[in-house]
Amino acid sequence: MKHTYLLILIILSTILLLSGCKTSTESEEPAPVFPMYVDDNGNDINDYVEQETHESGPDISTSTTGPSSTPGGAPGHSFIDSDDDGICDYAQDGTPTWHSPGFIDDNDNGICDFWDESHPMHSRHDGMRFHDENGNHINDYFEEEPHRSGDHDFIDEKEDGICDYAQDGSPSWHGPGFIDRNQNGMSDHWENGGRGHGGMMGGGHH
């Protein structure tokens, strides 16, 4: 009888040990960071703002809410390039127009929750943020005051009030949350293998 109890005890201990080891070695996949950046064609422009690989979220034009009053381009908007520079105009006007996988809009107001200051998700993600304290529908971090970037000064050769680096499709970070551990000037999230690199978890082009 004693040997039976001992054997049961050994078996239970082994099961618990193996179960604990499995739990300790398993790691949760890190959450993706939005908006994403990917440059498969190597031209230093985010593929999601270019015509062939344009990504603007789902088309919700049939919805009765939001899109008509959404500043900039509505979700699912077509590629528009009035200045023929190869970049969607809505990715250059400073509005909260989405260009990336990962679009979500729980309150149906036409603005991605990550960039919607009225949504709790706005302050709970690690990606680049939209902030518009002066109410002009332009991301404050793109403007001269209070321009915020981890790797460059405010430059505005176009004299349109928006930092040129926020309009050229380059991986130039604006706002809080800039991380660059290898000090190469590019956000770690947007580099290959990063949580905000489109080829990783964002699913590439749609």
Automatic annotation (TrEMBL):
Biased segments, Low complexity type: 58-72
Biased composition (Gly residues): 195-206
Domain of life the protein comes from: Bacteria
UniProt-annotated stretches for the region Disordered: 26-45, 52-86, 186-206
Name the UniProt record assigns to this protein: Lipoprotein
Lineage, top ranks: Bacteria, Pseudomonadati, Balneolota, Balneolia, Balneolales
